[in-house]
Amino acid sequence: MVTSTPDYTVVRFSSRTFPQEGRGNTIEELHERGLLPTKFVRYGNAVPQVDLVNRTMPGLRILTAGYTSVRREGVRQEGDHLYLCMTLHGTTVGSRRGRETLLSDGDAVLMTNEEAAWTMTSPSSVKIAGIRLPRSAIAQLVPKLENVTMRRIARDTSGLSLLRKYLDIVADDEALAAPASQRLIISHFHDLVALALGASSDAKAVAADRTLGAVRLAAIKADIVANLDDGKLNATMVATRNGVTVRYLHKLFENEDFTYSEFVLRERLTQAYHDLRNPLHSHRAISTIAFDLGFNDLSYFNRSFRRRYNATPSEIRDGAGAK
């Protein structure tokens, strides 16, 4: 399935919808049809399987996929592009000009679209992500880019680990299609790729100033939203999971319109509001909704909810009050 706006295109594909017989040919045709920048070809004797999402925007292309019995092959294209190939789960062997690089569980490698073709081969099922961007986007940030090609980038490299987190956070087609947020996200990806590849000291300082704080704050917010049901959730826990100090966490919120605690409360109240208005949750007691969202005090929940929506939880459930 292809979704497209003037500056944003999304291709979603799953081979599960095709008969096993001939499935390999269908997968190999994806590049020929212009839906993928690289080739996916059958590999091994098992039935090939591919599930992928390919997002394209000016200066950035993001591929996320899970596949079995498939090999990826780089293809010579117009323009000077770089490909950061990440193996999120599983094991992949990257090969170019007879040189091999073993990647597993978060490692990455940089490829180019020069005349020498490259391949990415996996012995079993694997989940991957690929970032394509123009060389010009990071050439001034990373000295001697040619020396970085085909070298394993360890999973715990700071820029790479942040990039993996950011991939999950920004996989939002509405945000990526909006010009203002799209430009910001693209610049964040360029900076994070440069940091993962070994940006110069000056470039690191620039990237830290314009990108790292924003990316870390986005990761922290996503962490909070994913753990709203934890009644013991606190700044120390969130900071530890995201590899920052509590002081730095609070500093990241200084440029927002709310503090860490205010953000947690706002997200919990927002989710409670949606649950109360959702018929699928009509059988759940209001107290259950509150406690399941991490509120340990029902009176505090009721006061906070009324202050936020100028209505009680019961009124919202009954269709009265704020819309």
Describe this entry's structure for a reader.
This protein is of the alpha+beta class and 323 residues long. The protein has a domain at 2-226: Jelly Rolls (Sandwich). The protein is built from 11 helices and 12 strands. The chain has helices at residues 23-32, 158-169, 173-177, 179-197, 201-226, 235-241, 246-252, 260-277, 286-292, 298-309, 313-317; strands at residues 2-5, 8-14, 39-42, 49-57, 60-68, 70-73, 81-89, 91-96, 99-104, 108-112, 118-121, 126-134. A 7-stranded antiparallel beta sheet has the order 1-2-4-5-12-7-10, sandwiched between helices. A hairpin with a 2-residue loop joins strand 1 and strand 2 (8-14). It is globular and about 65 Å long. The two termini are 34 Å apart. The relative contact order is 0.08. The mean pLDDT is 88.
Secondary structure: elements and pairs:
Layout: E1 2-5, E2 8-14, H1 23-32, E3 39-42, E4 49-57, E5 60-68, E6 70-73, E7 81-89, E8 91-96, E9 99-104, E10 108-112, E11 118-121, E12 126-134, H2 158-169, H3 173-177, H4 179-197, H5 201-226, H6 235-241, H7 246-252, H8 260-277, H9 286-292, H10 298-309, H11 313-317
Antiparallel strand pairs: 1-2, 2-4, 3-6, 4-5, 5-12, 6-11, 7-10, 7-12, 8-9, 8-11
Helix pairs in contact: 2-4, 2-5, 4-5, 6-7, 8-10
